[in-house]
Structure formats: C-alpha cells, structure tokens
Specification:
four-stranded antiparallel beta sheet, single chain, mainly beta, seven-stranded mixed beta sheet
Length: 123
C-alpha cells in the first residue's frame, strides 16, 4: 500500500516536497512514478525513478522537480520547486514494473499499485 503526503496550498514560485511511503517491500525492483491529474485534464506522469535511482521527468517539470527514493525507508520523494499554477493537481505515486513506461501507467492504472493522492494547489 502506498501513502502520499505533503500536498498543500502554496504560492506560485514556492516549493513543496511530496512523500510516498510504502508498507512492506512493495517497491522492490519496481519503478515508482509520480503522476498528476488536474480537473478536466488527462492524468500525466511527471517523474519516475527506478530501483537504481535513475530518474526521468516530463518536459514540463524538468529543472524544477526532483524525484528521489530512500529504499531503506521505503519512501519516494518529489521535490517541487518554482511551482506554477499549471502544476496544481492531485498527485499520486504509483509502483509499477519498469518494463512499462509511465505514460502507459497513466493510461492504464491497473498496471500499478497506487496511493490515494495528495492535493497540490498553487495560487
């Protein structure tokens, strides 16, 4: 089971750090991604990290967001800096096989284990 935390309301230009904690060893060799969905928009993957710590990012967040994982704590983080109004969304973390690209996970939620989400508001 995955549990996200850290979402809140911030001003544009501000920063937030989201956390995704896992019970047990759900992560293992899985990739962990952060996906977001704003009202009226499709779910999109913003960042992902594999078990070796190799990260990837959507173009819209490159240079502003950083994903990291602490395997000892079974926790994945998303550091978000220079937040923009378009970053406002419900953010979910998901654990999924690294053989699947995050774009596929965004379209096919059944491929992953998901958290309940944490809301980020940017004003």
């Amino acid at each position: 089971q995955l549990v996200e935390s850290g979402g809140k309301s911030v001003q544009a230009g501000g920063s937030l750090r989201l956390s995704c904690g896992a019970s047990g060893s759900i992560y293992g060799d899985a990739c962990v991604g952060w996906l977001r969905q704003a009202p009226g928009k499709e779910r999109e993957g913003v960042a992902a990290i594999d078990s070796d710590g190799i990260a990837s990012y959507a173009d819209s967040v490159k240079g502003r967001f950083t994903v990291s994982r602490d395997n000892a704590k079974n926790t994945v983080y998303l550091q978000m800096n220079s937040l923009k109004s378009e970053d406002a969304a419900m953010y979910h973390c998901a654990a999924y096989p690294c053989s699947r690209p995050i774009m596929m996970v965004a379209r096919t939620p059944s491929l992953a284990s998901w958290g309940q989400g944490t809301q980020v508001t940017v004003s």
